[in-house]
Amino acid sequence: MIRSIKGIKDILPSHSPKWQTLESRAHELARRFGFMEIRIPIFEQTELFSRSIGGATDIVEKEMYTFPDRDGTSLTLRPEGTAGVVRAFLEHSLANQFASRKLYYIGPMFRHERPQAGRFRQFQQFGVEAFGTEDPLMDVEIITLLWQYFSLLGLQDLTLHINSIGTLNDRHEYLGHLRDFLLPHLDKLCGNCRRRIDTNPLRILDCKVPHCRSLTDKAPALIDHLSPPSASHFREVLQNLALLKIPYTIDHRLVRGLDYYSMTTFEVTSPALGAQNTIGAGGRYDGLVEMLGGPPTPAVGFAIGLDRVSLVLPENAISPPSPLVFVAGFGEAGQEAGVKLLQEIRNAGITADTDYRASTLKNLLRSADRLSASITIILGDTETKKGTAILRDMVTKKQEEIPISKVIQTLTYWINPPSPSQQNS
Ligand code: ATP
Ligand code: MG
């Protein structure tokens, strides 16, 4: 038997209500904040990712699914969404066509990582990108959207970590101090970090090896080396988060070791997860659009890892299925009336089903129970001849025989009985 690929999972019917909730809430909230959906392709030219994500990152170094097209062009399954969104933004001149310049996406990403709890090779992200403003209020709007998404889903005890990495110049200045601090201790750093000191020294700050961490605990902090405009940008972000009552923790280790990132970086962690506890992350990337050939365009965004969110989603956040009406038509005339009625009920927007394998009332009722129907409509030849149908409440077992023409109206009433106040008016 052929099995699925390691690190890639099926979402089975028992889990799809959870995923539908995660996705519908994302659409709902992003639109409420004025973002428009963009659907970008699942694969692109490799160069798009290697150029935008950067050679010195885990993603480009070892995590991309890259393969030659038939003509030899190198293609890659998207490992993240931002690169594709920026490409599309430029390719279709969206800056001119679309005033809000705020986009969101939901879809699968692919990274060749070691599969473990919360880390998959195909995983789902919900991400947003806002182009065209440097204003710290846009950083705050993006963080607010991220925070509200998690509150809407009922996630608890989350921490919002935030930092500023300033501009490229601020970082150049700071890296001198960081190197001076690290060089005398080089032998105590892990192999990865010893390599990073030349390729990507900032990343040493977010190394997970305990030895490296205790050393960098005392390292100088980037926010103490920001230029006055960068420092004031960060201050405004924090002040406005406080204004909107979004709690945050400043985290000096939160760096994005890439040149096009600037200013604000943030991530949200959940205590209910193990080692892979970051459920969403983002920041400002004022240099990326230009790097991909566009005009200088500031931008800020986030990406949420929906698989990790799904692991901490409370049961009561999941939208319950709509009540099911089961149509039990049997006998020649009853079955025919049932086929017609099933269509009418569905056309009226009510969830309805039947079982074509059952032909006796006993078997039909058993199927209705198995499908957890809340109401069954019984239609035998006797009822059909009289022009009636029997409605059976599957919980109370209460039955009522009514004219077939009244079925939709009665069902609507049974499913959504008017509240007492509506009845009085
Ligand atoms: P990590 O530190 O966990 O490797 P990252 O920095 O690689 O994360 P980002 O590229 O910032 O992650 O992606 C944003 C979010 O997507 C992460 O915070 C996480 O929730 C989710 N994510 C990233 N990689 C995976 C994966 N392999 N499986 C499941 N979710 C993932
Ligand atoms: Mg990663």
Textual characterization of the structure:
The structure is a single chain. This protein is 39% helix and 20% strand. It has 17 helices and 16 strands. The protein is an alpha+beta fold and 425 residues long. The strands form three sheets. The chain has an eight-stranded mixed β-sheet with strand order 1-5-6-11-10-9-7-8. It has a five-stranded mixed β-sheet with strand order 13-12-14-15-16, with helices on both faces. A three-stranded antiparallel β-sheet has the order 2-4-3. It has two domains: 16-167 and 227-317, Bira Bifunctional Protein, Domain 2 (BirA Bifunctional Protein, domain 2, 2-Layer Sandwich), CATH 3.30.930.10; 325-415, Rossmann fold (3-Layer(aba) Sandwich). It binds adenosine-5'-triphosphate and magnesium ion. Adenosine-5'-triphosphate binds next to strand 6, strand 10, strand 11 and helix 12. Adenosine-5'-triphosphate (ATP) binds at residues 80, 111, 113, 118-120, 123, 125, 276, 278-281, 303, 305, 307-308.
